[in-house]
Amino acid sequence: MTVLVLYATVEGHTRKIAEHAAAQLEASGHGVVLADVREPGFAIPGRFDGVLLCAPIHMGRYPTPVEQFLIDWKAALADVPTALVSVSLGICSGNSEDRAEAEGYPAKLEKKTGFHIAKVHHAAGALKFLEYDFFKRMMMRQISTKEGGPVDTSKDYELTDWAALDRFLGEFADDVALAARA
Ligand SMILES: Cc1cc2nc3c(=O)[nH]c(=O)nc-3n(C[C@H](O)[C@H](O)[C@H](O)COP(=O)(O)O)c2cc1C
User: 106-140: per-residue pLDDT in tens?
Assistant: First the structure.
């Protein structure tokens, strides 16, 4: 069985998550093709037994190429197990309204694209204070303060729960194997 792992990223953390997912899926016995959703090349649905999309939230939405990919390929995606790893900071906020907003992003994506992704994992993302420019650093510090997150801008933070992600990937690997046997 071969799985397509596609990602979008702005700051690089979702690529790291996608690379981790690709390694985990390979370890569970699947062949894996990993590609950037902006440049999928030959890595397009229809040739794969499952598709895992990894996408971050920036300013309240997934990157446009993620939306376009779902619109373009929804018919092929509907034929195989398709899952989403939604990467955001709101999901680990100390504020329940922020968490509810983060949990609602996949439904908004469905509304825009007309494609329902049955399996979704919410992963907390990263705060890359050392890489942000001055204004982004101040904005992200302000958001993190409001969410009860880290505020020391002299460090980067990875808030992803890798063990929880691995449990999700294990379930997805099983779904792909089961669907391919059916
Ligand atoms: C400019 C900017 C805007 C962001 N906007 C949101 C947002 O609206 N909601 C949210 O939950 N997280 C937001 N985040 C957090 C990102 O989802 C998180 O940093 C993620 O790890 C980014 O993934 P990437 O490195 O693959 O781009 C934002 C981050 C940045 C830098």
Answer: 999 999 999 999 999 999 999 999 999 999 999 99
CA-wise closest residue to 54 among 126, 120, 128: 120
Report the length, in residues, of the chain: 182
Phi, psi for residue 2 in degrees, rounded to 5? -125, 135
The H helix count followed by the E strand count for the chain is 5, 7
**DSSP conformational letter for 95:** S
CA of 180 relative to ligand 1 center, distance in Å: 35
Q: Is the CB of 9 under 6 A from ligand 1?
A: yes
Average pLDDT (148-171) is 97
- Ligand 1 site, residue 14, Cβ cutoff 6 A: yes
Domains, the chain: 2-125+160-181 (3.40.50.360), 129-159 (no CATH)
CA distance 160 to 2: 26
Contact 124, 160 (CB under 8 A): yes
